[in-house]
Write a structure and sequence with these properties.
By secondary structure, the chain is of the alpha+beta class. The chain is built from 10 helices and 19 strands.
């Protein structure tokens, strides 16, 4: 469709949906109908977009606000006292991919973890009906705002203020579960609250996994194409995130044990970053450069205060400085070496098996093939 000089919300919504269809993110008529109908702008009266290393803020009434609301980008809508984003409206193309991966059928009931702005709940409610959508979020203020905006847009799914990691057993069992927040591991209550044959689509580390629930409530599945991260689920509404900025100076100056190491792969390449996020989902992991331009990879475990500083000195060589009870690099190196020796497979060749006991097993190509038990 043609966009006019002063496009309306309807024009922008149709244009966004057409782009998502042409790009293959929306692949079914029901989800196309949902994106054509649910007004994204109604859920984001104020938001910030991160672009080209800077933050750009938009508010309802600004000349560019409406057009910005329908860009295929994440819209940041809440920040903690450190300036770290704690809620957003997810990039529409990623939302579409995850919704398609749910493979919902008429009559299915979906548990959504992370209400956010309410826009994703609107898409679900349009597709399945209000009575088939339950959304849980830890932040009562977010839930209240999402409920108001959903009602204004004509949707009334069930919204619950509570710990999404515990699910919502009162309405279980569910047919599908969609997590729009990042989790380090799949919580056991999610497995317990899904019917056998149910599907979980969730973000773990740097990837999105699609799991099918078995009769014994274990689950197995593969990672979707494309890497992505969501904001981590918060244990309390007022949780404050630790920022990389607060760790930069300590990790550049701490002294500990030192040794030379061989790097099996570029530590910031997509494959190694995916594997690191699977093995160490709770470890702060970021890159710096020293005064000589050498790359430094910094790792920090907030629980044990173990740390590692990896300074690249050659194509495959580096100096490791580390301290604390855990040797974080020694834990990570075998998985990266296997990835290198296996021909650097893409993350979509990996999958995950989750037991009702909470155990997580990462595997390559097939569930009964080579695998690694992930730490809790």
């Amino acid at each position: 469709m043609t966009i006019t000089d002063a496009p309306s919300a309807d024009e922008l919504r149709h244009h966004m949906t057409d782009r998502l269809v042409r790009a293959g993110h929306i692949r079914s008529k029901p989800w196309r109908s949902a994106f054509l109908s649910a007004p994204r702008h109604a859920f984001v009266p104020d938001f910030t977009i991160r672009a080209r290393g800077a933050l750009h803020r938009y508010s309802q009434g600004d000349p560019e606000w409406l057009v910005a609301a329908y860009q295929d980008v994440s819209l940041l809508t809440q920040f903690d006292q450190n300036g770290t984003a704690t809620s957003s409206s997810t990039q529409p193309s990623l939302m579409a991919e995850m919704l398609e991966a749910l493979d919902v059928r008429d009559g299915d009931t979906v548990l959504e973890i992370g209400a956010g702005t309410g826009y994703n709940a609107a898409l679900l409610a349009h597709r399945l009906g209000d009575q088939h959508v339950v959304t849980v979020d830890i932040d009562p203020e977010l839930v209240a705002a999402a409920r108001t905006r959903l009602r204004s847009a004509g949707y009334e799914p069930m919204l619950v203020a509570g710990d999404g990691m515990a699910g919502h057993p009162e309405r279980a069992p569910y047919d599908r579960l969609l997590a729009t927040c990042g989790v380090p591991r799949i919580p056991t209550p999610w497995l317990e609250q899904l019917r056998p044959g149910g599907v979980i689509v969730a973000n773990i580390g740097f990837a999105i996994v699609r799991l099918e629930v078995a009769a014994d409530h274990s689950a197995v599945g593969r990672f979707l194409p494309g890497l992505a991260t969501f904001m981590t689920a918060r244990p309390t509404p007022d949780s404050v995130s630790a920022t990389a900025g607060s760790l930069v100076q300590p990790l550049l100056t701490w002294t500990g044990q030192t040794r030379g190491i061989t790097i099996p792969a570029g530590v910031d390449a997509p494959g190694p970053q995916f594997l690191a996020s699977m093995l160490h989902p709770r470890i702060s992991d970021f890159a710096l450069a020293d005064d000589d331009g050498r790359q430094i990879r910094c790792l920090f475990d907030p629980v044990t205060e173990s740390w590692a500083r990896i300074t690249v000195t050659g194509v495959t060589s580096a100096r490791l400085d580390h301290g604390g009870p855990r040797d974080l690099w020694a834990e990570r190196e075998p998985l990266l070496s296997h990835w290198r020796d296996a021909g650097r497979p893409g993350h979509e060749r990996y999958g995950l098996t989750v037991g009702l006991d909470g155990g997580h097993s990462l595997w390559l190509d097939e569930p009964d093939g080579v695998s690694w038990q992930l730490p809790a």
